[in-house]
Fold each of these.
Amino acid sequence: MVPFKNSLPMQLYRALDAVMPAYRALFAAHNLTEPQWRVLRVVWECQKTTPHMVSGATPLHVSEATLISAQSLVGIVDRMVAKGLLTRLRSVDDRRMVYLLPTPKARALAETVLPKVDAIRADIADRLTEAEWETLGALLSKAGGTKPNEKTQVENERTAG
Amino acid sequence: MVPFKNSLPMQLYRALDAVMPAYRALFAAHNLTEPQWRVLRVVWECQKTTPHMVSGATPLHVSEATLISAQSLVGIVDRMVAKGLLTRLRSVDDRRMVYLLPTPKARALAETVLPKVDAIRADIADRLTEAEWETLGALLSKAGGTKPNEKTQVENERTAG
DNA sequence: GCAATTTAATTCATACATGAAATATTATCA
DNA sequence: TGATAATATTTCATGTATGAATTAAATTGC
């Protein structure tokens, strides 16, 4: 029987434990939690890539892109709205729908934090070669039951939305 | 800039999202949460591997082995005690110390669940070859900045902080 | 020998995760 | 057309994570 600490979940959790503190410290320095950053990043990306297609940033889309459940998202967005980072806009066409929009403050914040996030990423990137990163990514998705070339759920939703 | 979804954290979270539901469903079927299972497993292992060395199962040890912070562990252990799975025993030598002991009920539970956990693991194991698993493990620890025989993050955090 | 520090466990406040269920709205089809 | 199903979001209850502070006991320095 595989020792507990060599199990796939524990190896994954350990890897996360190793890389996340640096990111979280950065986010905390900007009064953001990690989930809040993920939401901000996705909402910001949606605005940037499709400036006129506000419909991209529905809670469902953000939920899928961030791997944050819809229920969790409610509270996260609540707090971000309270902090003046997001606004909720209910659709007139389909009043079940809500659009999440970044405020100017949020956009500025994203543009401040993104380079620093990338700096951390670049630092971590040095630990492996290009080829190794590629192998790791492929093995991770394979271990997760997703064939390398197969589209992920998030991707499908993305292209669909 | 690396797309958000191809970042190491998101790849790790996706892999966890892919493998954990099966485990969590099993744990839930036995009225356990995932952290509770981790604690149970470690406490049970300590008992099993060193039957007379009760001192192995201190909260600190469990915290390090499970990657659960000491504060979180308090509540988790509280609930497990309430469910009759653990008993807390305070040391007479050093009254700051507590030993966590599995009840007979907990031991029976562990022996019921462990084979099922291993069945899930075996199922997942088929997705990669032996060599690939080894590569994945090596790359994960390398990506985490930990050389194979180096101490874990939790330990480092402690000694560093 | 005792003040200062360290250590182990815990508490507290805030934030997040999860399954189940509720709410409101729109789509389906017999 | 009107009951029913599906969809998007939210609420609720319970459990967990995290940083900061607390308590109690043990160790160290002087």
Amino acid sequence: MKFQKICSDSRTQARKGQIITAHGTIDTPVFMPVGTAGTVKGVFHRELEEDIQAQIILGNTYHLYLRPGVEVIRRAGGLHRFVSWNKPILTDSGGFQVFSLAASRKLTAEGCTFRSHIDGSKHFFSPENVIDIQRTIGADIIMAFDECPAGDSDYQYAARSLTLTQQWLERCSKQFAETEPQYGYEQTLFPIVQGCVYPELRRRAAEHVAAMNFDGYAIGGLSVGEPAEVMYEMIETVNNILPDNCPRYLMGVGTPVNLIEGIARGIDMFDCVMPTRNGRNGMIFTSEGVINIRNKKWERDFEPIDPAGVSFVDRYSKAYLRHLFVSGEMLGAQIASIHNLAFYLRLVRQAATMIENGNFDQWRQTIIPKLGNRL
RNA sequence: GGGGAUGUCGCAUAGUGGCAAUUGCAACAGACUGUAAAUCUGUCCUCUUCGGAGUUCGGUGGUUCGAGUCCACCUAUCCCCA
């Protein structure tokens, strides 16, 4: 994997660049649709490629390991072949599931024992086997196994958790160095910066990963309950330390405003379930703000979902989309997912254009108020 | 004409002496940030200063400290026999 910075904004830390992988080039800043279980829920690849213009999608180690299982993916020839997606893929390590499925796991220095959310069966993840699994899944970018502490963790817990994440990173890195890609193309390992909301921990974490010379870096453990302003501060703290010539990936974030503020602070990559999950639940991101399409006020609104929308689903009216949601028709969830992803992807493409044209900061000031009161 | 059954908050249901009344659906609103989510939560007779207050179970009257529940009559709907 290679990263090329094409240009930077003069007033902010925003930059435009390209990530070159074995499965193609990614223009940054980029938003990566989340396809946890080998599918961006409700969206065909054709729509992802042609309409949404996704350049890279995510998969999840935890989910794919449980189902269909690594053996199926190995026999398929890797995840790209299994799901018929020939562009870049990034897999998350399962570290986030260690957090979100906390009720059914046990953490030790060695790794994490957990119970499957599907059938309750017992499993064990370690830095080593998570790398092995991600070798078999075969994503272009793979993530280190980390612990993602809750947003309200106290300093002591956060510090101990960070130490664990750092130890795990060393082991991930070693395992990665000692293993080979299984399908003949290069894979790249990203470390994850943790440290909760504590600047000194974030700094320590960033310095630790920067010293290890990776090709790209991720910031995790944000947007897990802390105020957005705190998240922005943490991004600034960390990005001041991470090398400037590598992509920076802010994991699991966020709202459209989060994306723009992240870009302004030097983030290049984002992923988030919000456009798809919230979309399936009726939340539509439009150029005129966020709407809940199930609300009665759209019952007779025959205007397009988003007058400025760029995807083919934007031709549908709000009234029709509301009807689909109220009726529980699956097409509603599909339209919402496609529209929202197209909206997100267009937003970051616009940001890139603005960076290139030198008016990113001005654009940022004008667009943020339009994106929605609380987003 | 004779016999039987049944009327509960939009619909459907529970309730057989202490009840503003069960549950489901519908409706309305909210939540969702590296996806245990096509999920979850709340409201859903009226008013409310959220403490309560006021009116309810086809209608009228009665029994009772107390009635959606028991009794009488009326009324509506459905079923069976002529």
